[in-house]
Design brief:
Helix content is 0%, strand content 29%. It contains no helices and three strands. It has a three-stranded antiparallel beta sheet, with no helix packed on it. The protein is mainly beta and 65 residues long. β1 and β2 form a beta hairpin.
Length: 65
């Protein structure tokens, strides 16, 4: 019998460096003070210089918070 690993619910965040146009993807656990986990998942391909910013949650509340 296998043991299933619990699913960790995270909020995905994209951070864009306005100076370079580089974007980075992060996963954030539930906010818990200094023990909040923020994990860098990697740099996204492309350059992001468009000054339009948005929030998309697919109709659900943010999961990390």
């Amino acid at each position: 019998m296998g043991i299933a690993r619990p699913v960790e619910v995270s909020t995905l965040l994209t951070a864009i460096d306005k100076d370079t146009g580089a974007a980075y993807l992060y996963a954030m656990s539930h906010a818990n003070g200094p023990s909040t986990v923020i994990k860098l998942l990697g740099k996204l391909p492309g350059t992001y210089t468009d000054p339009i910013y948005f929030l998309r949650t697919h109709g659900t509340d943010l999961r990390g918070e």
